[in-house]
Structures are given as structure tokens and as C-alpha cells.
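Entry 12.
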Amino acid sequence: MKLIGGMASLLAGATIYLLFRSKRLLGFELLSRIGAEPWADRMRSYTADVTLPDVVVYSLPGGLWSLGYILVIDSVFGHQTRSTRIVWASVIPLLGVGSELLQAFGLLPGVFDPWDLVFYALPFILFVTRI
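Predicted 3D structure (C-alpha cells):
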């Protein structure tokens, strides 16, 4: 069940990214290279009149990816010790939090957003306190 939930979370984050983020981002370059840009454009046309809050468009996908990663990792490493599961589950949340902090100090291109910190960290905090 964790694996299905993790995959659904990853898919939900990717869907928000695909439908509502700028086409200038790297993900759209990859879609173009594999010939999926017409499909993506068609999907985006269905939501062209939909407006979502910025936190949903810009921060929630990272949180969903963080959650999805943790659930997938926990399903794969569920038989391992608690500490091993925590180490593996921490990779994406730590990369997300780390990249936001580097952006805050101007050491990485991008725009620092405190909501990104919350959305990357919260699934990991909940995971660690629940296992």
C-alpha cells in the first residue's frame, strides 16, 4: 500500500508541475526531447482557465515528491532497521531543504521560499516521528 501511495504522490506532484508551471523549466525540455510536448500542451489546454494558489503550484509538488519518495523508499527498505530506513528516506527531503537554504544565501540559483522548506521537510518529520 505504501508503494501505491508513494507512486500516487509522485504522479500528483508531476501532474501539478506539468499542468501549471512555466514551460521554460527543465521538465518541459525533457518532454520536448522525447516527443511528448504535443501531449503535454494538450493536457495543459484543459486547465488553461484554472487558477490555483501559488503555494499549490510552486511548493506542493516538491512536498508531494518528498512524500512519494519517502513512501517508496519505506516500502522497499521496510525490512531494514529504523536507522537505515531513516537514512534512505532522508535523501530527497535533505536535498530539497538544502537547495532552499543555498538559495536563501545566494549560493544556488533560484528563489528561496519558506513554504518549500515546509513542504520538503514535513513528510520526513512525520515519517521519523511515526516509525
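Annotation: Residues 2-130 form one domain. The helical segments are 2-20, 26-33, 37-46, 54-76, 82-89, 91-104, 114-130.
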